[in-house]
Amino acid sequence: MNSESPFSSSAGAAGDAVVPVSVLNRAIGTMLERSFPLVWVSGEVSNFTRAASGHWYFSIKDAQAQMRCVMFRGRAQYAEFTPREGDKIEVRALVTMYEPRGELQLNVEAVRRTGQGRLYEAFLRLKAQLESEGLFDAERKRALPAHPRAIGIVTSLQAAALRDVLTTLARRAPHIPVIVYPAPVQGAGVSAKLAAMVETASRRGEVDVLIVCRGGGSIEDLWAFNEEVLARAIAESKMPVVSGVGHETDFTIADFAADVRAPTPTGAAELVSPQRVLLLRELDHRHATLARGFGRMMERRAQQLDWLARRLVSPAERLARQRTHLQQLSVRLASAGARPVRDARGRFALVQMRWQRWRPDLSLQRSQVSGLAERMERALLRQHERHIARVETLAARLEVLSPQRTLERGYAALLDAQNGRAVRAPSALKPGRRMTVHLAEGSADIALSDVQPRLTEGF
User: Fold this and answer.
1) Is the pLDDT of residue 210 over 90?
2) Cα–Cα distance between 66 and 105 in angstroms, integer?
3) What distance in Å separates the CA atoms of residue 25 and residue 28, rounded to the nearest whole number?
4) What are the phi and psi torsion angles at 100 (to 5°)?
5) pTM of the predicted model, to two decimals?
6) For residue 455, what are the domain limits?
7) Which key words are in the record (predicted)?
8) What's the rounded mean pLDDT across residues 136-148?
9) Strand pairing partners for 46?
10) 78 and 144 part of one domain
11) Which residue has the higher pLDDT, 296 or 5?
């Protein structure tokens, strides 16, 4: 480095200069920051502490060494996770020195997981993406059939999970056929093959419910069930899908996309298969209930038949009774139909007589109305003539008092040009003041040049 040291000015020719510790630490810190750029450092988290100020203090270590780290609150609040003791992480940091104690440390700007942590971050990102698309919504989840006609299984033929599922299905529901759609569950390109088997089962429609399963393992072993292609295939399946991947604590993207998640492959088999013993027990119960109900119904029908037999009458006698009853009804109907007509005619005649007696004579009223109309027309005409005469009289008086007639007799009206008010006193006439003079045939604006007011009592 060609730059001058911060304490080079204090150094003597013989190198016997004395520098304070703070100056030395500051110089070392400056040299470290200039010599080491931002770098990614990996290690295991140790002694992690979150201060009340929000700063993070921890160490990262490997088998041979360790380094103290600090991540200030301004950077820590944007971290996607909080490290825990023993986590494998990578930090993007600047090598610095904490001058008060003279300790070397890493000033951390960013933190991320390594190895399994990166897979977990990818898992969280894909889960958030598919969840935002509504792929995991509860509204789209379908109920499992209570009595499936056939059960499908998507897994490897060599998987222990397949044996567990088949054993459970044989024990619980040996009467239900099982169709296996073989696909590898670990290795490169596995997720696409699993998705292809799910699509094949959905396209064929041979089963009523589908199980996608495999045994437990690390996150790397289960990663095929965290791929987007498998999740979308499960979501688009025409039949309900049950996921049984890993152990009870293992969660995959396939679990969230499936209609039902089972904690284990065996649990998935138990969810989709009704227990045969319980079905037979329920069938016996229903058979006994049906037999009792049928016996009671037969007893009620026999009792009803006896009652109807006692009421049974000869058809000829029954017809004779109905014929007699019909004749009686006919006579009553004829009598009942004639009586209202007679009553109505009598009431009508009575009302007509009363109406003829009280019918008014309108000829007299018409003559009276005609006379009143003529009188009203004459009165309105006289009133109109009086109003016209009065209007003419008022118009003549108004003409006499009109200002225009006064101006035509030789008078003039003098108004102030500024406020438009009439000038009444000679004292208001001042030289230079502008006036408006109204005459009989128009008006004119004038300016007074020489004024000699003179008071008079009139003409």
Assistant:
1) yes
2) 10
3) 5
4) -60, -30
5) 0.44
6) 400-459
7) Cytoplasm, Exonuclease, Hydrolase, Nuclease
8) 89
9) 59
10) no
11) 296
